[in-house]
Amino acid sequence: MVKILNYTNKKTFPVLKMKKLVHLLFIAAFTFLSQLATAQKTPGKEILYVGTYTAKGEGIYVYTLDRKARTFHPLQIMTTKNSPSFLEFHPNKKYLYSANEGNGTVTAYQIDPSSGRLNEGNSVSAKGNGPCHLSVDPKGRFLYVSNYGSGTLAVYTLSTDGQINTLADTIQHHGEGQQKPRMHSIIPSADGKFIYASDLGIDRIAVYAVDQKTGKLSPAANPFAQVQKGDGPRHFAIHPNGNFGYSAGELNNVVNVFRIDKKTGGLTHLERISMLPDNFQGKNAAADIHFSPNGNYLYASNRGHESLVVYAVNATTGKLTTVGHVPTGGKHPRNFMLDDKGEFALVANRDNDNVVFFATTPQSGLLNNTGYELSIPTPVCVRMLSIP
Fold first, then answer.
1. What per-residue confidence (pLDDT) applies to 43?
2. 297-310 b/e (C-beta count within 10 Å ≥ 16 → b)
3. For site-directed labelling of 280, which of 41, 75, 150, 364 has its Cα 20 to 30 A away?
C-alpha cells in the first residue's frame, strides 16, 4: 500500500526542500574540496645551508633537499669573502647567524619563510680574533660568540626581528705558564640558565651562569671542569635528557663525559674514552660532536683518521660504548649534522670539497654512505631547516 501525503501548502514545500538540498550539496562539496586540498598539499621544504672558507668558497651555499631522491638542488649563494665558517639558527628558525673568521665579525640573516633564501641583516664585531663558533640562547634572547684567536667570548642581545643588538658582556680567558686561551665553543643548557665554554688552550670547560634579563655572565658555583693536560676541549654536546655532557678533545682525541647538576650547572667527571681505533698510528685531530635525535648514539668526527666514531649511550649512567668508525668519504671532516628525523647524516669534508650524504641504521647507530654528495669548495659547517 502506498501512502499518499497531502500537503496543504504546495508552494512552500518545494522551496524549503530545494534550499535544504542546496545546503547539503554545498557542505558535501566543501568537505570534498577540503579533503582534496589536504591530500594534494605540497610537502614542506627542507633547506641546507653550508658555510665555507672563502679562499676557495664563495660564502654560504643554500640548497633544497629532495629527501626521497636524496638529492640537493642549488637555491642561492650568499656571496661574501669573509669566511662564514660557522652557522647557527635562531630557535624560531626565522634567522641564521654566521661567524666570519675572515674579518672578525658576526652577521644576522633573515630566512625567507616561503623559499628559505637568505636576506642579509646587520653585522657586528665578534669582540675578538678568529670567531669560530656561535650559539643562541634557547629562548632567543642572546647570541654567544667564541673567539679562538684571542681566547675571548662575547654575548650580544638579540632584537625581536632577529637583528644583533647590544653587547651584553665580554670575557677574556687566561692561561697559566705557556698556555694560551683558545675559546672554541659555547653551548647553553636547555633552560638557558648556564653556558658551557670550551677553551682548548687551557684545557677547561668554563661554566657561567647567565643573567636572564641582561645576558651578563658570572662564574657558576662550580666555575669550570679541568680535563687532562693536552686534551684540548673543542666542542661540547648535552644529552637530550640534560643529565650528561660530552666534550670532544681535539688534541688527545678523546671524549670526556660529565654528569650535569641542573641546579648549579656543575660538571662531575665520569669517564674518558678514546675516539680512535686501538691500532691507529697516524696523526689526528678531533672536531665536532653530536647526538642522534633520540639520544641513543653519540657521534664525533676525526680529522686524520677521516671518520666518525659512533658510541652507544647509556642514558641512565651516561657511559659510552664504542660501536665503530665510519669513513667520512673525504679528508678533514669538520662540522657534521644528523637530521631531526634520524634518517641521515651530512658530513662536511673541508679538504675534499664535498658534503657527503649518509643514511642512518637505527638498530646499530652506524651510518651508510649513500653515494650522494655535494661538491662545495672548502665546506666547514652544515645546517638544515624544515619549512612548513
1. 56
2. bbbbbbbbbbbbbb
3. 364
